[in-house]
Amino acid sequence: MKSIKFITITILAALIMFGIFKNLFSKSNSENLAALINEGAYLVDVRTPAEFANGSVNGAVNIPLDKISNQLAKFKPKSHIIVFCRSGNRSSQAKSILEQYGFTNVTNGGTWQNVNQYVSK
């Protein structure tokens, strides 16, 4: 019985701490994203051209995920790169691809709507 209480308390404590750390990370990630955008980060929408045409972030370029490896020259002179998409999945893949090619200045912005909220209209 004591071990069940201990396990329950440990799990609850871990969940509470995870929630606190998650909120701290999310806040600092948002602040970091806003700062990078304000500093002129290269905004890259990795969705398809059709998705991009239906709405994106002001000033963003469209380099679809499947074209990233062929477009590396466009990334080289940039001090910071923010990739984004519809759900955050393709942008996560794009970040990984760029990192495989040696880019260390890439941030996954998640969804285009998330990035858009930090862009001056």
Describe this structure in words.
The protein has 121 residues and is an alpha/beta fold. Helix content is 49%, strand content 14%. It has a four-stranded parallel sheet, sandwiched between helices. The longest helix is centred in the N-terminal third of the chain and has 37 residues, at 2-38. The N and C termini lie far apart (59 Å).
CATH 2nd-level architecture: 3-Layer(aba) Sandwich
The CATH class is Alpha Beta
| H/E element sequence | HEHEEHEH
C-alpha Rg (nearest Å):
18 Å
Number of extended strands: 4
The major β-sheet equals: 4 strands, parallel
Question: What is the assigned CATH homologous superfamily?
Answer: Rhodanese-like domain
- Please list the strands of the largest sheet in the order they lie side by side: 2-1-3-4
Strand content: 5-15%
User: Helix tally?
Assistant: 4
- Form type: elongated
